[in-house]
Design a protein that fits this description.
This protein is mostly helical. The protein has one domain. The protein contains 9 helices and no strands. The longest helix has 27 residues. It is globular.
Length: about 250
């Protein structure tokens, strides 16, 4: 049975893709020393990263709201989940090759793979998802404060527990998207999607202007773009660097 797509949601995801690609383009310029920026501490860059990840996770929640409403089965869910989890493993391998001392072991795709399962299981919570999301967003900062009072929590800083996000210091890794607080963003996305579909469906059913249609197309291929854009950018810059040195 054909299932309706909502171009507005796809376009929002596509906007996140464009923003992410621009960010990574600048990051790669910096990696090749053609740009001099501190992507790890400068708020101009760190806040952009936070906003981009938030937009991706919010869109993932919106997508799960659509899937739940359309009664998509677990077989379809697990097929898509396997694609995300497989790509997460490839990201780990690729980042280990480029950044052996700070490779990505729980980045955005790893986080999405875990959160998708939890969000799908909690899809029937309805309006309580707003509260759940708010609580999830507060857990990590509260845990960081608790570290200062209970030294017994130090074990949460060990890599095996980093996926929870209940740390007092950020792990040394190129991308870090743990369960908390980011699950809260995806829960908010699910709650917003269910609210729109139940009471304001026209907001997501509106036809997009022609200028926004490429974003919708891009949003439908977000995982493929995510996996391919960095190898293409880094490969092109490597070739340019090699040619310039000759």
């Amino acid at each position: 049975m054909a299932r309706a797509r909502y171009d507005s949601i796809d376009a929002l995801r596509g906007a996140a893709i464009v923003w992410m690609t621009a960010y990574h383009f600048c990051f790669d310029l910096n990696y090749f020393h053609w740009l001099r920026q501190d992507f790890y501490r400068d708020p101009f860059w760190t806040w952009q990263r936070t906003a981009i990840v938030s937009l991706f996770l919010f869109c993932a929640g919106l997508g799960q709201a659509v899937a739940f409403e359309q009664q998509q089965g677990w077989a379809r869910f697990w097929k898509r989940w396997a694609q995300v989890a497989g790509c997460a493993l490839l990201v780990t391998l690729g980042s280990w090759w480029m950044f052996p001392k700070s490779f990505i072991y729980f980045g955005v795709l790893h986080g999405i793979a875990l959160m998708l399962v939890l969000v799908r299981l909690s899809a029937g919570w309805g309006p309580w998802l707003w509260l759940a999301g708010t609580l999830a967003l507060t857990v990590a900062p509260l845990a960081a404060l608790a570290h200062g009072h209970w030294r017994a929590l130090e074990f949460l800083n060990q890599p095996i527990w980093n996926w929870l996000g209940l740390v007092s210091r950020k792990p040394i890794t190129e991308d870090y998207v743990p369960l908390f607080p980011w699950l809260g963003v995806m829960w908010w996305g699910m709650a917003a999607g269910q609210s729109l579909l139940s009471g304001r469906r026209q907001w997501v059913q509106r036809a997009l202007p022609r200028s926004a249609r490429p974003l919708a197309w891009l949003g439908r291929w977000s995982l493929s773009w995510y996996m391919l854009h960095q190898p293409v950018l880094i490969g092109a810059m490597t070739l340019w660097s090699y040619a310039a040195a000759r």
